Amino acid sequence: MNNRAFAVSIMARAAYHRTMEHVDKNDAEKPTQIAVLGTLAEFHRNPLPYDLTALVDLVAKINPDLLCLDISLEQWQQQDFSSLPAEYSEALLPLANQTDIVVVPIGGSQSMPQATAVAWRGVLIGWARKLLAWMQSSAPGPDAINQGWRHELGNVLYGVARKLAGNAVEHTYHAHIEQLSQAARHVAENNPGSRILVVTNIQYCHHIRPQLQQAGLSETTYKNL
After folding, report:
1. CA 143 → CA 19, 38, 86, 194, 225, distances in Å?
2. Spatial distance between the Cα atoms of 95 and 34, rounded to a whole number of angstroms
3. Is the dihedral of CA 182, 187, 189, 190 positive or negative?
4. No. of helices (H) and no. of strands (E), the chain
5. Are 78 and 42 a contacting pair, CB within 8 Å?
6. pTM given for the model
7. How many CA atoms lie within 13 A of 107 on its CB side?
8. CA–CA distance, 207 with 123 (Å, rounded to integer)
9. For 94-149, how does the pLDDT look when each residue is reduced to its tens digit (9 = 90+)?
């Protein structure tokens, strides 16, 4: 690791621990708000209504205090974003770098694998992905992906793909959503008075939102954040 990369790693680690620690007690008087914004990572490169530009414009307009992303602390410390989806590496991370938005990594060390299979199961997974692509291309904007029938259908299609891929993928999925949910709760509990936006794939939204609500947090929509 060169000197610049080492310095960036040290600064990233320090920023992370500052975020995960308690802030000024005066901020506790303000309500802590947290919202989850769902995306379809693999399709944002396409020239669609909900593309990378639309995502950047939306998050810039929301302008949260803290932006929770599904990346590991190690990736954040090393500033190695080559393996991240375009919505992070080409959109949200550059946006945060140009603004006062603070990025908080909430992902675990094990990334969620893409659902794959052979024979007829692989064919069905391919069909599910084609439906996801159509759903994204026909969506007029982020609202259509984060609520209504597209949101529900996306959750079902991802669920079907995981089932077809086998128990290992399903087990990894549940461990991943538990990691994301616990980390997001920890950020909210230790940063009172903050406006927090969690941006992740729509397949996790249905599980993260209820866990935030069960923890007694003020979970709201990204439009009301």
Report:
1. 29, 9, 20, 23, 14
2. 19
3. positive
4. 10, 5
5. no
6. 0.83
7. 23
8. 27
9. 999 999 999 999 998 877 778 888 899 999 999 998 898 888 888 888 888 888 99
